[in-house]
UniProtKB/TrEMBL annotation:
<keyword id="KW-1133">Transmembrane helix</keyword>
<dbReference type="GO" id="GO:0000155">
    <property type="term" value="F:phosphorelay sensor kinase activity"/>
</dbReference>
<keyword id="KW-0472">Membrane</keyword>
<protein>
    <recommendedName>
        <fullName>histidine kinase</fullName>
        <ecNumber>2.7.13.3</ecNumber>
    </recommendedName>
</protein>
<feature type="domain" description="HAMP">
    <location>
        <begin position="206"/>
        <end position="258"/>
    </location>
</feature>
<dbReference type="InterPro" id="IPR003594">
    <property type="entry name" value="HATPase_dom"/>
</dbReference>
<keyword id="KW-0812">Transmembrane</keyword>
<dbReference type="GO" id="GO:0005524">
    <property type="term" value="F:ATP binding"/>
</dbReference>
<keyword id="KW-0067">ATP-binding</keyword>
<dbReference type="InterPro" id="IPR036097">
    <property type="entry name" value="HisK_dim/P_sf"/>
</dbReference>
<keyword id="KW-0597">Phosphoprotein</keyword>
<dbReference type="InterPro" id="IPR003661">
    <property type="entry name" value="HisK_dim/P_dom"/>
</dbReference>
<keyword id="KW-0902">Two-component regulatory system</keyword>
<feature type="transmembrane region" description="Helical">
    <location>
        <begin position="185"/>
        <end position="204"/>
    </location>
</feature>
<dbReference type="InterPro" id="IPR004358">
    <property type="entry name" value="Sig_transdc_His_kin-like_C"/>
</dbReference>
<keyword id="KW-0175">Coiled coil</keyword>
<keyword id="KW-0547">Nucleotide-binding</keyword>
Amino acid sequence: MKHSIRFRLVLTLIVSLTCTIFLCWILNKSLLAPYYEKFKVESLGKVYTEIDSIYKESSEDNSTSTEEISLAMESLGANKNMTMYVFQIEDDELGLNINFLYPALDVFQRSQVVKQILEYATLETDIRGHNLLTETGEYRIYKIFDKRINSHYLELFGALDEKTGVYIRSNYQSMLESVSISNQFLAYAGIAAVILGSAILFVVSRSFTKPILELSNIATQMSNLNFDIKYCADREDEIGTLGKSMNVLSEKLEYTISELKSANNELQKDIEHKIQIDEMRTEFLSNVSHELKTPIALIQGYAEGLKENINDDEESRNFYCDVIIDEANKMNKMVKKLLSLNQIESGKDPVTFERFDIVSLIQSVLNATEIMFQQQKITVTFAEREPIYVWADEYMIEEVITNYISNAVNHIDGERRIEVKLTKTNELVRVTVTNTGKPIPEEDIDKVWIKFFKVDKARTREYGGSGIGLSIVKAIMDSHNREYGVRNTDDGVAFWFELDRKNE
């Protein structure tokens, strides 16, 4: 990450801090000295006012001693860090004579101060390079450079009355040194502040960039359709709000994608179902055409034979007519079964659940086919006598039982025995129809439910089967959402189905 937010944040704050400190240094360097000078000028003026007040009060109050005045002056000078002189100038025949009222000076100090006072008194200031800063009717303030001691000063020269003057001196050089020290300190402090601030900013910035990187990782995971990762930090700031919003977004995206996948799955199923329907339609037409071709050909052939009087005897004509009627009946039964299958598969024949006795229903089907059992010498075993109630569509289940029984009769062999058996549990009843005969080849056992599929085509043609009966069973059981199946036994085949049982 060449220019990360953390890098830019730290760099921006460092530059801002550096610029701020540098600006403060420039302002300090350029404005501190003039400000201090102005402050000192104002202080000199205030000191003059206080000295004037002290001497006026002493003049009005004769009880004030010289010692008290000196003490007040000394305290004022110490507090203000100034050197003050109060004097009187007398003009005699010898010239100007200066008498100091405050403070007491030795000969050397006196000579130096007198010289300076006389320069101010005679206005000989130009020879010393004095710089006049301010002037009032009572005093003048100068900025000077004392070459003798190589130092700058601020000096006030003023009059308290006609004879009394005041001379105040304040060291200006110390202020310039203070400004220099201040600038130097500010430069060092600024460098230290930049270094320390940079370190602090680098550490503190992590508290901002870390959650941002975490949110970035969450966004990356979301782009990869991984919605398990969530933002867990408990923050009440903007980042916390963003994290909560991303969690909500993740949940909504997950839900939306789930809905899209479900819709896509349903669409795929619909497409596959449509393809399957088209394939089934094609297969159905092919199978129907094939199944109808033989009886139609027989009917056409025997009908032409009758028309052309191939056989004149009555017995032959009756045989021809019986064949035509038999084939027509087969076609009629096949069409009825196809119509019934179509009704069930299309949902046009809805399932009506009702409670009924399955034992009674099975017994009724067996009774209806009793004559056929006798004609084909089939032994039927059904041991149940007590009522067993189930929930299903009674008429559809009757058709399932009828198709199982018919299938068992048509494929019976060997001992020619059919057994109908009920197996009960608390929730279900399993009906099993078993017949003796040849087993179904294992490769064909799952195909028996397919429309028009025939394990033994020759035998199916013999009894007039269409291969639709078990397809009807499949459609009915699927509409009930119940299990069904077939298995080979030791001496035959067993077909079964299950129904919901009424708890008693």
